[in-house]
């Protein structure tokens, strides 16, 4: 194969990948900067008028195990962790199994610049399921899906 053609193809793929990363890394939320107050909520979150019984259990578990990084109401924390109430985490892009696997095994950074997420030890599958229900109900209240 022509070396110039291969080099051009590699350049196009690399630039396309960087462009896609730039699109998804920001997704309407400014990247954390030195000027951003560490820990500040990254998005405004409207809560549903009422949560299901399962989502209420999930809210309790989320507040105990997830909010220290992902913020109150999953609004993210500048310089700490991303908001889960964001279109990147809608079910068609990050399904429920993605949340389950991230809680169990951690997750490699791929949309945001916060670094890898460590596993969350001690959560049962039932607690993770309730957390997912809570996040999905809040996402729905915010027009995510």
Your description of this structure?
The chain has 145 residues and is mainly alpha-helical. The protein has a single domain (3-141), classed as Cytochrome Bc1 Complex, Chain D, domain 2, CATH 1.10.760.10. The chain is 47% helix and 0% strand. It is built from five helices and no strands. The chain has helices at residues 3-26, 53-65, 67-70, 96-105, 125-141. Helix 2 packs across helix 5 (125-141) and helix 4 crosses helix 5. The longest helix is centred in the N-terminal third of the chain and has 24 residues, at 3-26. It is globular, with a radius of gyration of 18 Å.
In short:
The protein has 145 residues and is an all-alpha fold. It has helices at 3-26, 53-65, 67-70, 96-105, 125-141. The protein is globular.
Task: Throw out a few tags for this protein.
145 residues; mainly alpha; Cytochrome Bc1 Complex, Chain D, domain 2; 5 helices
Note the overall shape. Answer: globular
Low-confidence stretches: 4-35
Specify the biggest β-sheet: none
Secondary-structure element pattern, one letter each:
HHHHH
CATH topology: Cytochrome Bc1 Complex, Chain D, domain 2
Secondary structure class reads mainly alpha
Return the CATH architecture: Orthogonal Bundle
CATH superfamily: Cytochrome c-like domain
Number of strands: 0
Number of H/I helices: 5
Question: Secondary-structure blueprint of this entry?
Answer:
Layout: H1 3-26, H2 53-65, H3 67-70, H4 96-105, H5 125-141
Helix pairs in contact: 2-5, 4-5
């Amino acid at each position: 194969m022509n070396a110039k053609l291969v080099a051009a193809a590699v350049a196009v793929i690399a630039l396309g990948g960087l462009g896609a990363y730039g699109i998804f890394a920001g997704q309407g939320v400014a990247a954390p900067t030195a000027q951003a107050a560490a820990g500040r909520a990254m998005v405004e979150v409207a809560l549903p008028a009422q949560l299901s019984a399962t989502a209420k259990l999930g809210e309790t578990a989320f507040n105990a195990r997830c909010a220290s990084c992902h913020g109150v109401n999953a609004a993210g924390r500048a310089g700490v962790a991303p908001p889960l109430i964001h279109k990147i985490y809608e079910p068609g892009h990050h399904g429920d199994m993605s949340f389950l696997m991230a809680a169990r095994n951690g997750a490699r950074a791929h949309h945001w610049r916060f670094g890898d997420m460590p596993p969350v030890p001690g959560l049962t599958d039932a607690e993770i399921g309730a957390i997912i229900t809570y996040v999905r109900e809040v996402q729905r209240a915010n027009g995510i899906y």
